[in-house]
Amino acid sequence: MGRADVYSQPDAPDPLLPAELVRELAEPHLPSDLRLSDGMVVDESGGEARVYLFNRADVGGGVAVKTQRPHRLRPRTSLAKEAALLAALAGPLAGRIPAVHGYDRVDTAEGPVELIVMSRVPGRPVCRTTIGRPARSELLRQLADVLREVHALDPADLVASGLLPADEGVVGLRSRLEPNFADLAEKLEGRPASWPLTVSPSRVSALALDALPAGPTQPVVVLHSNPGITHTFVDPAGALSGLIDFGDAYASHPALDLRSWPDPDDRVELRRHYLDGDTAIADWDAVWTSAMIYADMAALSGPPAQAERAAADLRERLHHV
């Protein structure tokens, strides 16, 4: 845990819920014609939430019951926010994001449980597949279409409700990025063998932050936060089947949603599809450059081929700050 994440109750119990209880919690929220199969699978990522997966007993598809892990509760993660966002995006993104059946907080014998009941997105995450070109380019085009719909959602009501944090202006943007860069620089300085430049990670972080626009930026938009290879799902042919996990969503500059893919070539391709022929203004590109520097620094601790590409991109980005 670094400066950017503070868990509010790190010693809280985190029980694995029995299937009978999860079913009991989910069923009041399900449509009357939807029946769950007997088996349950626990998808345990070790992150802020745990997901219990059921198949449908009648037709294909399934149901996911996502619960907040109490000991990993942090200010930027919220199942209530995720449920509200999925409901707000259900029209434009039907079939490409989970459909929410219900959200609840319940006191049980296992302790208080916060949960979302939603449809399962079919397919597998990109991180568990191999997708070559041109299928990968088409996938990134499809993801760019989804992100434009997310960014088109008016954030005003969600921000006013307190559910959606917002980075207002340059000060807000810098306040979000500064602790993340500090955490990353500290990590890299503790692993000097993985750092390819003569200039220090702390100095690169400072240069990236100084490259941010000096004046007001464009109005904030709703961001997924991490639409990367873990949360982007694909079918067997490599086509987009859905985008999951909106629990860390916030409102900020749209370029920040294009930094999550570890391969810089993927990020550049996603940007190209996102802009869809438009030319980015200078301030937009300044935020994009800072975001790319951050993503390259984060990728340096990955597999050797990934780290090599990230190092080359990082050197190039530093010519523009």
The CATH topology label of the largest domain is Aminoglycoside 3'-phosphotransferase, Chain: A, domain 2
* Name of the level-1 CATH class of the largest domain: Alpha Beta
| CATH-defined superfamily of the largest domain | Aminoglycoside phosphotransferase (APH), C-terminal lobe
Mean pLDDT value: 93
The tally of helices reads: 9
What's the CATH architecture name of the largest domain? Alpha-Beta Complex
Sheet with the most strands, sense and barrel status: 5 strands, antiparallel
Helix content: 25-40%
In total, how many domains does the architecture comprise? Answer: 2
SS-based class: alpha+beta
H and E order: HEEEHEEEHHHHEEEEHHH
Main sheet strand line-up = 1-2-3-5-4
The coarse overall form would be globular
Beta strand % = 15-25%
Q: Detail the poorly predicted runs.
A: none
Overview of this protein structure:
The chain is α+β, with helices and mostly antiparallel strands and 321 residues long. It has two domains: 19-119, Phosphorylase Kinase, domain 1 (2-Layer Sandwich), CATH 3.30.200.20; 124-318, Aminoglycoside 3'-phosphotransferase, Chain: A, domain 2 (Alpha-Beta Complex). It is 36% helix and 16% strand. It is built from nine helices and ten strands. It has helices at residues 19-26, 79-88, 135-152, 156-160, 169-189, 201-210, 264-275, 282-299, 304-318; strands spanning 41-43, 49-55, 62-68, 100-108, 111-119, 124-125, 221-223, 232-234, 240-243, 250-252. A five-stranded antiparallel β-sheet has the order 1-2-3-5-4, with helices on both faces. A three-stranded antiparallel β-sheet has the order 6-8-9, with helices on one face. It has a two-stranded antiparallel ribbon with strand order 7-10. A hairpin with a 2-residue loop joins strand 4 and strand 5 (111-119). Helix 5 packs antiparallel against helix 6 and helix 8 packs antiparallel against helix 9. The longest helix is centred in the middle third of the chain and has 21 residues, at 169-189. The chain starts with 18 loop residues before the first helix and ends with a helix. The model has no long low-confidence stretch (mean pLDDT 93).
